[in-house]
Amino acid sequence: MGIELPIEWREVAQEILKDPGKVIFLGEADTGKTSLCLQLANLALQEGLRVGVFDLDIGQSHIGPPATIGIGPLENPIEDIGEINPFARYFVGALSPGSEPLRMIQGVERLLFHRPDLPSFDLLLIDTSGYVHGPQALSLKWKKFCVIQPDHYIFLERQVELEGLKRLSEREKGRKHRLQVPVEIRRKSPDARRSYRMEAWRRTFQHASTLQIPKNSSQLTMNRGTLVGLMGPGDSFLDLGLIEETKGEEVAVYTPYPRAGGIEEIILGRTNEPATALGWTSTMVK
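The chain above was modelled as a monomer; its predicted structure follows.
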């Protein structure tokens, strides 16, 4: 079930189990955030706690497809965060949080505070992306701190690369835990990260079909292969889709969603990577 926890990590895990709440994992890409989240989730389940995981890493999503955030309960011991079934998802539409910061924050707020059917968790583990450097990244993380109000902040560092984030967190309540990244944790190459997404895209669209959906009046032109979010009442996210073509006032969308009824809006994303994964070519349609 992932890497063996270093002694320092196990000690922090035990502290959190004694005082659970909302726990946010922070660090660059490939620093062990998801591995620690997995181990802590299983430990908490063994202790009889109600455990949820909130996946905010839209570029390397585990709970739901890339370009979405997802939240779900842990019901049985798992060996991979991807085994958790999403209870709810939200369409961000990009592969980096910096490309759609407003939708990232809207999604966090909606899934945490505007879903009255969301299960109650004793321990909510919040996995984040490696987007941690630069003013825009720090601003976005701080907005997440303000919205989520974590009870525990876990900083995973190789050296001192999270000083800016740590200074920001000092403004907020919650216990701060600083952990060293073990040398056993290696950085993945960009190709490996892209390969992970490409396989995720293929799984997502393996049972897709084409739906004819009324076109938003503001969307006069669309690119074939653009990722879209199909939205239902109250900005609820129904499923992903890919633009195939437009015909008059309708848009042909390739999607796993089974029916056109209930789709109230099409939100354009900022990537055509899933179309590439499916072997499409991208051309302008009018």
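The chain has two domains: 7-180, 205-285.
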